[in-house]
């Protein structure tokens, strides 16, 4: 009997040790700035679907594991993934280095060079406003990046709100689109007396040598004086022919567009340049020639991007409102 008790006791000890929960801790920082990498993904290398977590507002994380040490992958959008060994005996500081290829892609997105597809050249559309762009990445994701953008504008009694989600796929995708956009827009033209709501989807295909092509469709609702929508229509919201070219030389980016749709075309060129010791801000200048039906003119845009927020100013003095008034 004593032997049985001893065996059971030893079995219990071994079982308890094997099932003990150790806590692995660490802090994730940017290797250049030393700032916390909030939301960094921490995944145990061999069992990623079971043991995973994200860094908090202070870059810190804790991860329960059944062993006192573990090999983990630490990643975040725009950084090179690191594989490190964590030990319960100490809190590990992990420095992530910027992925230059992804960083270049992020910098391209800082430059909002083209008039949003589906809009016409409107002097009062976006005279002033603020736009915030936030990158998001799922835990353990390697080939997917998601961007959310919110833009509010106001001028001459008109105002509006844009909200969009962009899914960027970095892997080898064959003929599939490299970007998928979904957006919602709500526009109030008080001087014209109508409200315009638009739902849009847009596919973007990147080509060799820095070229890209967009195509998409949108659903529009137009109501007069906030009454029941009187016009529900499907309209081409992408481009029959939009060719974009982007070059990045040092900290200077140069962008050109040509867009052709029935009754509407424009050519656009712009540039942006980083400034600041940590390159946290961008200055953007844009010049665009447009032609819509009988209207044509030049639109000038100046913008400053600070972190992920863009403060912009646009002016297009040769635009007229004949088309919008005719919609009444």
TrEMBL record:
Alphabetized InterPro entries for the sequence: CarboxyPept-like_regulatory
Source organism, top-level taxon: Bacteria
Annotated keywords: Carboxypeptidase, Hydrolase, Protease
Listed GO MF terms: carboxypeptidase activity
Protein name: Carboxypeptidase-like regulatory domain-containing protein
């Amino acid at each position: 009997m004593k032997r049985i008790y001893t065996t059971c006791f030893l079995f219990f000890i071994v079982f308890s040790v094997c099932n003990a929960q150790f806590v692995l801790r660490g802090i994730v920082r940017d290797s250049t700035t030393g700032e916390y990498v909030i939301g960094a993904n921490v995944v145990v290398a061999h069992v990623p679907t079971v043991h995973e977590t994200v860094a908090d507002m202070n870059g810190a994380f804790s991860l329960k594991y059944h062993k006192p040490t573990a090999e983990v992958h630490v990643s975040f959008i725009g950084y090179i993934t690191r594989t490190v060994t964590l030990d319960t005996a100490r809190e590990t500081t992990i420095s992530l280095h910027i992925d230059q290829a992804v960083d270049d892609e992020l910098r391209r997105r800082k430059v909002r060079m083209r008039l949003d597809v589906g809009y016409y050249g409107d002097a009062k559309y976006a005279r002033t406003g603020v736009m915030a762009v936030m990158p998001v990445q799922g835990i353990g994701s390697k080939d997917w990046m998601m961007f959310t953008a919110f833009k509010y504008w106001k001028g001459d009694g008109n105002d509006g709100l844009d909200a969009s989600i962009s899914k960027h796929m970095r892997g080898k995708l064959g003929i599939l689109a490299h970007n998928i956009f979904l957006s919602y827009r709500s526009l109030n033209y008080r001087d014209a007396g109508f409200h315009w709501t638009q739902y849009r989807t847009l596919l973007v295909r990147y080509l060799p040598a820095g070229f890209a092509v967009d195509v998409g469709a949108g659903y529009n609702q137009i109501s007069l004086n906030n009454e029941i929508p009187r016009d529900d229509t499907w309209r081409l919201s992408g481009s029959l022919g939009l060719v974009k070219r982007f070059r990045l030389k040092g900290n200077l980016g140069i962008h050109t567009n040509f867009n052709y749709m029935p009754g509407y075309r424009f050519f656009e060129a712009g540039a942006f340049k980083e400034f600041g010791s940590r390159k946290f801000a961008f200055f953007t200048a844009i010049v665009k020639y447009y032609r819509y039906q009988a209207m044509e003119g030049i639109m000038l845009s100046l913008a400053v991007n600070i972190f992920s927020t863009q403060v912009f100013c646009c002016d297009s003095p040769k635009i007229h409102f004949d088309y919008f008034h005719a919609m009444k």
